[in-house]
Design brief:
- With about 120 residues, the protein is mainly alpha-helical.
- It has a domain at about 10-95: Transcription Factor, Ets-1 (DNA polymerase, domain 1, Orthogonal Bundle), CATH 1.10.150.50.
- It is about 55% helix and about 0% strand.
- The chain has six helices and no strands.
- Residues about 115-125 have low confidence and may be disordered.
């Protein structure tokens, strides 16, 4: 990934810990970047937040020393990304790890498979 640019929202469930940190900066929650990195919060973990029980959510908030309002902001931003993915509003670009020669192929396949990549998100309340 180009470290000067925030991570691709379409691929948030494969974000690294560093990608999550960049995203936190973008959504004005950068004060939590270090504690998220210390706790290994990556995109897969963020994706699983929607299935957490109340006890797990409270444990996460305590572990990350989050204010309740900041947790709500985090959830709203995740929801915004998921909805944009489902509507096909996210720009598709070649991921940072893919060779440039695959850019055209990747974008075509990603656009074709976009709905299958986010089908689990439709089950959220």
């Amino acid at each position: 990934m180009n470290r000067d640019r925030p991570p691709e929202p379409l691929d948030f469930f494969i974000w690294t810990v560093e990608d999550v940190g960049l995203w936190l900066e973008e959504i004005k929650l950068g004060s939590y970047r270090q504690v998220f990195e210390d706790n290994g919060v990556n995109g897969e973990y963020l994706e699983s937040l929607s299935t957490f029980t109340t006890e797990q959510i409270l444990r996460f908030i305590r572990r990350c020393h989050m204010k309740w309002g900041d947790f709500i902001t985090l959830c709203k931003e995740l929801r915004r990304i998921k909805v944009a993915c489902l509507k096909g509003e996210q720009e598709v670009r070649r991921p940072w790890w893919a060779p440039a020669c695959f850019a055209v192929v990747f974008v075509k396949v990603a656009k074709r498979n976009r709905q299958s990549r986010v089908v689990s998100l439709k089950l959220e309340p």
